[in-house]
């Protein structure tokens, strides 16, 4: 009986020593970098050129949105910008010679009418003083002469304005109006170009949340791509070994279905824990904390592994 007890104690000691010798580890899954392509406008999907799981190249067309609404509005803004450009060119060129010649002619005609009105008033004024004509006729002649003089001054001011050309402030206003119109047209052109949704990088189509004919809201993901030559291990580091795991440390990544471990290196580890609430960070509850980390796979044999596989990562904690 005693020998059985001693034997059982020995096995327990061996088991505990084996557990103590086991390398610190963390569990997680294989993940790729994800790129989400949002909807640039709330337009209907008119074409889907790829399937989920298909490998795509950078710049390859994934799907196309309807441009029946955005296309005409963009062209209208482009035409408006061209009109602003023409107006600015007209301001910069200044008045035409024909307009200046016409203004000179109007000034000459106004001066002639003013001389005639002034001469008539000069003849009529002495007669009025001798009461040979009615006072009303004299007043009327005086008003006509004054009006003719005002017309001369107005015609001269118009000619001076044309001869001095366009003011710099008017040119600046025209330039500002042109820039505003061009900016509006450019913004619509960018959105119009994005109606053809293309892959920004080479990768694999992970999800196409919407079907042909759907109208996704602005900002909704139209396609999700997995990019990168190899996945990385996304694991949760337990609190007891967190102090011994640092960015740059080597690690071994064990994937279900592969006997040999993959070589990796810690590239990121969060400073804030998860799972355990902040009010339970004492005693035994603190051991339940975990820290999100990413382990980059450095070996060439990691390429082609699918995302989502469960992994176990062992760290060389000193």
From TrEMBL:
Position of the signal peptide: 1-20
One Pfam match: HH_YBHG
Keywords: Coiled coil, Signal
Domain YbhG-like alpha-helical hairpin residue range list: 79-193
InterPro entries membership: HH_YbhG-like (IPR059052), UPF0194_transport (IPR050465)
Keyword ATP-binding listed: no
Keyword set includes Manganese: no
Organism: Novilysobacter erysipheiresistens
Intracellular or extracellular location(s): Cell envelope
Main location: other
Stored PROSITE patterns: PROKAR_LIPOPROTEIN (PS51257)
PANTHER family, sorted: EFFLUX SYSTEM COMPONENT YKNX-RELATED, UPF0194 MEMBRANE PROTEIN YBHG
Protein name listed in UniProt: HlyD family efflux transporter periplasmic adaptor subunit
